[in-house]
Amino acid sequence: MRVSYFNYHYDIEGSAVGAATQVRAIAAALTRLGHQVDVQFRTAKKPGERREYLGLKKVPGLRRYGHVPRLVWRNFAFIREELKLLDQFRPDVVLAVSSYANFSALAASRRRRLPLVLFAEAPLEYEYRLFYPQYYRYPWLSRGLEGINVRGADRVTCISEVLKGYLMRYEAPAAKLHVVPNGVDHLLFTPREPDPEFMAHLGLKDRMVIGYIGSFEFFGGVERFLALAKKIIAAHSRVVFLLVGKGRVDDAIRRGAESDGLGPHFRFAGSMPHQLIPRVLSVMDIVIGPYKEDYLFYGSSMKLLEYMAAGKAVLFPALGQIKEVVCDGHNGRLYEPGDHETMFHNLLELIGNKGLRRQLGAGARLTIENHWTWDIQGARLSHVLQLARESRPGGRP
């Protein structure tokens, strides 16, 4: 098949680097299956680029109330551009990542009588309400557009069962919604010896390293995490917490650790290019995911899959898709969201039992190889694309 793959991620070298990695991995998996894929990052900014939008963002009222109308209005330019892209590539099917207030892919594919598969990776209206309170959302409009896209697409892929349940509110036929979760590059993320350069740079020799990699947007309470860390360090003085990434709370963790006298037991590596993550992951003995327990966990954690592919012992809350991937005691450890006492005791057990860490890591690696590689997920998506194509025969212009 020839697949036009549209996505609307903005800062693909920064805040959306994980999403860009996902897009490229999916395209590569489809290509290995013999499909021709035309990837279009429709709104991505160039490295170092700044967009002023005629300075309108500097006017508070216009910034708050004009943001969503601007997103809606730009669809009309997108439609013209995407019609040209479709005419040039002449695809059999369009694959489009769902994006807030966007409907151009649906309009363009209908104009060319092409089947559309909507790739839903987030509950858009919910996410905007949670993460972008500075903008007025026009809820009726945003919910309406999200529903139009879900009902109008020939097929919809969701990255988790939780997200599928959310999208069913739009009364699309359940048979049209397919769960295609994220995967991992199991050839890039493999069990490896600790990287000596990172060990030396971060001062980790003879240390027991508990790591976290990713955005701090979903990190649980800072005070509770620091209290947990203090108890762990009191029991095991060799422990170091290595935190990789940026977000709203990493500075708060840093300040809290210093004020509690825990500074020597924390390392803050900041954001890192994705290609360096296997190296920094190699120096971690245990990897944790202390996510918020009150968060609608609709995601498909690529980070968890990367940890497991690297053969790491993981300790995560039993949220959303996590409990579908991790079988407690077989390929990782789980605790009920908010149960910090169980998290504490599980950490103590993992710290003190090297054999258990190795056993869980081996089980994690086998789980990934058998069920969670990008090639496996690419085959699932390929099947959905074929179903969409069969539902709208003769679609190529």
Summarize this structure as a short list of keywords or feature phrases.
alpha/beta; globular; 2 domains; Rossmann fold; 15 helices; 45% helix; 397 residues; 6-stranded parallel sheet
Describe this structure in words.
- Helices cover 45% and strands 14% of the residues.
- It has 397 residues and is an alpha/beta fold.
- The protein folds into 2 domains: 2-183 and 374-391, Rossmann fold; 196-371, Glycogen Phosphorylase B (Rossmann fold).
- The protein has a 6-stranded parallel sheet, sandwiched between helices. The chain has a 6-stranded parallel sheet with strand order 9-8-7-10-11-12, sandwiched between helices.
- Helix 9 links the parallel strand 8 (239-244) and strand 9.
Short description:
This protein has 397 residues and is of the alpha/beta class. It has helices spanning 17-32, 60-89, 104-111, 124-131, 139-152, 161-167, 196-201, 222-235, 250-259, 277-282, 302-309, 322-325, 340-352, 354-371, 374-391; strands at 2-7, 36-41, 93-97, 116-120, 155-158, 177-179, 208-213, 239-244, 266-270, 286-288, 313-317, 333-335. The protein has 15 helices and twelve strands.
